[in-house]
Write a structure and sequence with these properties.
alpha/beta, D-Maltodextrin-Binding Protein, domain 2, 2 domains, nine-stranded mixed beta sheet, six-stranded mixed beta sheet, 18 strands, 34% helix, globular
């Protein structure tokens, strides 16, 4: 099998080689993530998985790629947007870890289920300013806005049977600890790691490893893709405690999962620091749609839709565009 340009026959195979190289450069979406790939159509219909990616390529009115923990809110948010903007009959949304999304924007698209989907979004949302700096360096973004806040918390089984009270309990080797992976997930790379290092826990919990779907020390596991894996594993009895966004606990409980939350003090929850950032992508196919969505984020319907899922909307003075420095 041809693996790249170096093994291709000159001229005769040039177009084929270019296609193979482009395909290899696209970012692979992990298998089984159809639910993170959606298109919301007017009339209440939703496409997902490869059908959604195909529709994003062939034609939508707005394409948003956002940090994955907004997954459970995006239906309400985008339906509210469509109500205010009836011309937005088809809205694509991808809700994967922001680091993975940033790579896909830089490389020009995705691979999923054996197919290539070269494309970029109209707007991108993350919790990590470093992602925006990388896009600016590539000429793909210039400014951003703060539009949401959140905070860290611990998720445990209902009734807290292991008697977990705070982050320092994560050292306990009798606990099966699950943490968001620090490679792609902003919750860990930007916020969680900072707190764990301040408390002197990082080395104990990771042995210095930064990886996905791995076990850096015997009682700790890093997620493969999403920290949304944590409520599933706690519910199934595969984990005892995990570090998540507080909104994750609210969502899991609303869906009847047998979990509970342990609140952290403000210096550990970072409730005054956690910010969600959104930027329009330079040269976007639907720039007008992106502008309309950014304006919508400042309205009561948008704030109410997010607040219903536990997110804290940004103050009006935070939503002004800021240059990416």
């Amino acid at each position: 099998m041809i693996s790249g340009l170096r093994r291709c026959v000159p001229l005769a195979a040039l177009a084929l080689c270019a296609a193979i190289s482009a395909r290899a450069a696209l970012v692979q979406i992990p298998a089984g993530h159809d639910s993170d790939l959606r298109v919301f159509l007017s009339g209440g219909r939703t496409l997902s998985g490869p059908a959604a990616l195909e529709r994003m390529q062939s034609g939508v009115d707005l394409d948003l790629w956002v940090a994955g923990n907004q997954y459970f809110a995006m239906g309400d948010v985008l339906r509210a947007f469509q109500k205010e903007n009836p011309k937005a009959a088809a809205i694509g949304v991808i809700t994967l870890p922001p680091g993975l999304i940033a790579q896909a924007i830089l490389k020009g698209g995705w691979r999923y289920a054996g197919k290539s989907y070269p494309m970029r979004p109209d707007a991108y949302a993350t919790v990590d300013l470093a992602h925006l700096r990388a896009l600016k360096k590539a000429g793909l973004a210039s400014d951003y806005r703060v539009y949401l806040h959140n905070e860290l918390a611990l998720m445990v089984a209902r009734g807290n049977p292991k008697d977990v009270h705070g982050l320092k309990d994560l050292r306990r080797t009798d606990l099966r600890v699950e943490l968001p992976n620090p490679v792609d997930e902003g919750i860990m790379s930007v916020y969680g790691r900072k707190v764990l290092e301040r408390l002197g826990l990082w080395k104990d919990l990771t042995a210095g490893q930064v990886c996905r779907a791995c076990r850096p020390v015997a009682h700790v596991y890093f997620t493969a893709v999403h920290h949304r894996e944590i409520p599933a594993d706690i519910s199934a009895g595969r984990a005892d405690v995990g570090l998540v966004w507080k909104t994750e606990i609210r969502n899991a409980a609303a869906h009847g999962l047998p979990i509970a939350g342990v609140d952290l003090p403000p210096q550990d929850s970072l409730r005054d620091q956690v910010s969600y950032l959104i930027t329009p992508i330079t040269g976007a196919r639907h720039a007008a749609g992106a502008s309309a969505f950014l304006r919508f984020l400042e309205t009561a319907p948008a704030r109410d839709a997010y607040a219903a899922h536990g997110f804290v909307p940004a103050r009006s003075d935070e939503s002004e565009p800021r240059p990416i420095r």
